[in-house]
Automatic annotation (TrEMBL):
The chain crosses the membrane at residues 12-35, 47-69, 76-94, 100-122. Gene3D superfamilies: MFS general substrate transporter like domains. Keywords: Membrane, Transmembrane, Transmembrane helix. The keyword DNA damage does not apply. InterPro entries: MFS_trans_sf (IPR036259). The keyword Ribonucleoprotein does not apply. This is MFS transporter.
Amino acid sequence: MARFFTTSHARFSMLGASIFWAAAVVLRVMMVAWAPAVLLTSSTAEIANLTVFIAIGIALGAFIVPWLVPIERLRRARVAAYVMGALIVVLATVNDPTLAKIVLLLIGMSGGIFVVPINAALQELGHRSIGAGGAVAIQNFFENLAMLAGTGLYTLALGGGIDPVVAIADRHGERSEGG
């Protein structure tokens, strides 16, 4: 495994992919409570529909990324990560379902533009250093560890009386019962 992390591209890519998946899982967990509290959705189908916009955005981002972030310019992917983070902050201010879908689509596009070149770099670096299978195994380990950490931190926050969804709902004048 040490051979895999000898380059800054490998470390950047692994950290970036892991943080991306941690943020994605926390966003998805939060959306289950956020949508009813802030958007006043009433069914799981409506919540699932919101996640479709993220998925479509990721697909669109993956489609256009070859023209925006060639593998030789991997660090350009950071810009998409910054945009994605800013859009998540913007999402916290949204209380209109249509606007939420647009922001979620843009979050997904930014995510696709970020994660696709990161994954390509990890596969290429892995192929050259420890083999593609070993690289995929290491990548999956760190991504799943990051998702576990993200979910764990969210759960700890809830256990400590800090509910991000209630804070967002209060900001919009709504009140979530139990978050």
